[in-house]
Amino acid sequence: MIERRDVFQAIADPTRRIIIIKLSQGPLNITQIGEDLDISKQAIAKHIKILKECGMIVMNQKGREQVCEAQLTQLDEVTDWVTQSRKLWNQRFEKLDQFLASAKK
């Protein structure tokens, strides 16, 4: 069975979040992505593969190099989810506040 990847898997890992932040500044190759990370090129390639499967990055050939480019519009899905969750929890807390206020009387 093929595992479905989504933006939430992309941002679930701290290393992938760092890679996304780096790529938000502009396209980079794998060597440039790994400059400040204390992990192997193989591990970086694995994270890049997952980010690509999640639709967070695209790979472009520039000469002999593979260059990664961020696709940040995918983060809109996270923003929408957070907004909806915030509304739901605010409603629940308002109901709880009302219940507690009526219980004090």
From TrEMBL:
InterPro entries: ArsR-like_HTH, HTH_ArsR_DNA-bd_dom, WH-like_DNA-bd_sf, WH_DNA-bd_sf. Residues 1-90 form the HTH arsR-type domain. GO terms for molecular function: DNA-binding transcription factor activity. This is Regulatory protein, arsR family. It comes from Daejeonella lutea.
